Amino acid sequence: MKIIVNDTNILIDLADIDLLEDAVKLNFEFQTNDFIISEISSPTQLAKVQLLADSGKLTVLTTQAEEYIEISRLQINNLSFEDCSVWFLAKKLNGILLTGDANLRKSALKAGLDVRGIFFIFDKLVEENIIDTIEAIEKLRKLRIVNTRLPISEIEKRIKLWNNE
């Protein structure tokens, strides 16, 4: 089963629109690390993520001391240590890096990693019939409100497609 390594922003967005439980039903193994969990400051978001971790649907790996140096070597292009920690983990596990961070995306892609974003999750949820298109549209509209940095064109493209326009 392919591994997805989750960055903080994806976990937060999925928590905010109540799609975390559905996302982990996809045919992937969801993982992240302790640094990413520590970045979640909202008690509500953290509770939702922790529930997945406690149930075994999201594996939260503890970063080992010997990995700190390797993670630090990735710190380029104004990337935070936390960003580099998921880049490192995705590379180590040969997984898909799931992020909405533009700098992290560009750097990881340049290094040859498979990098996806939240729209990949939406597409897979609909493709695998975990949610229907009506719910997907509703969640996309909610996402547009909670994360104003997402490209409106990608949201509108999916809404039109799923509305059969």
Summarize the structure.
The protein is α/β, with parallel strands linked by helices and 165 residues long.
Notable features of this structure?
single chain, 165 residues, alpha/beta, 10 helices, 5 strands
Biggest sheet, open or closed, and with what strands and sense? 5 strands, parallel
DSSP strand count: 5
Can you write the helix and strand succession as a string? EHHEHHEHHEHEHHH
Percentage of residues in DSSP E strands: 5-15%
Physical arrangement of strands within the biggest beta sheet: 3-2-1-4-5
Mean pLDDT: 95
Shape: globular
How many angstroms does the end-to-end distance come to?
A: 35 Å
Structural class: alpha/beta
Description:
The chain is of the alpha/beta class. The chain is built from ten helices and five strands. The chain has helices at 8-16, 20-23, 34-38, 43-54, 67-73, 81-93, 102-110, 118-127, 133-146, 152-162; strands spanning 3-6, 29-33, 58-61, 96-98, 114-116. Strands 3-2-1-4-5 form a five-stranded parallel beta sheet. Helix 1 crosses helix 4 (43-54), helix 5 packs across helix 6 and helix 9 runs antiparallel to helix 10. The model has no long low-confidence stretch (mean pLDDT 95).
